Amino acid sequence: MHALVIHAPLDLRIEDVPTPEPEANQLLVRVRAGGICGSDLHYFNHGGFGTVRIREPMVLGHEVSGVVSRAGSGVIDVPAGTRIAISPSRPCGLCQYCQQGLHNHCLDMRYYGSAMRTPHVQGAFRQEIVIDRSQAHFVADSLSDAEAAMAEPLSVALHAVRRAGPMLGKRVLVTGCGPIGALIVAAARRAGAATIVVTDVNTLPLESALKVGADIALNVAEAPDALQPFAADKGSFDVLFEASGNAAALRGAFDVLKPRGIIVQVGLGGEMTLPMNAVVAKEFDLRGAFRFHEEFAVAVELLNKGLIDVKPLISGVFPYQESVKAFQTAGDRSKSMKVLMTFD
What we know:
Largest sheet: 7 strands, mixed
Mean pLDDT: 96
Distance between the termini: 11 Å
Strand content: 25-35%
Number of strands: 20
CATH superfamily of the largest domain: Medium-chain alcohol dehydrogenases, catalytic domain
Radius of gyration: 20 Å
Helix content: 10-25%
């Protein structure tokens, strides 16, 4: 079966890869759709990010949906033909963090399409894949394959919102409205946020964030002081979700965050220098948000029930044979939000 294999920056190839036989508690799945993530773009454009580098050929991708072709002998509840979203998170279940329910911090995590360990963990941008039964989540007939593949980035957003605590009645600021930022908007709105303001430097992400629940969208490239009115009386926002990974966005939000405001850092863009005097004086609570685990099932349920609509964020679907064009399109934030590929 064909797979998309990255060898070096800008060297993405379609190659034949073998598919193993499913074991007793596994499923053989025909992949139908896959979304291009920011990490996929880093591998494609730069060969990695930070100290994480491609050291051997690796199949990309971790945001996928598909249909079950065959079940292992021990699986009795997933017949062939079942449509599923596939969780790429495969924690060991045995380490101290898994035993505490912190599966996203697993000491032996195997996450699809990741060069964080060697040998690399091969990804899911392939026509066929064998998965554990625990990774399969049933998809409603009302959901398209592309929408189902959005369960993974929605899970990231749901985890970030959970890290912030109760949202009911909160005034929320989201800096950076790429796919994750926009999905944080949708998740925070579903969780009960009263007001959501978003910032970005491009028009398309701001327009997309408004479609999924934002109240006010501010282009800080066109109006660098757009947030200034929210700085009165020590700030207007209870919660900040920083999804751009930009140090200037984080620092600029400090002035508009209320005392004892909660900062959830989601975006990764390199090391940052924090104004610790402001953190202390305003008693900020700084929290990180890394991946997800149990939120994947919640994401699929919300999508299945139509409680969160991701269609406004899908800006392009390409056949995998046009993968290079798909990656180039996904890398242009002025024209694209979430770009997906089909693997028929």
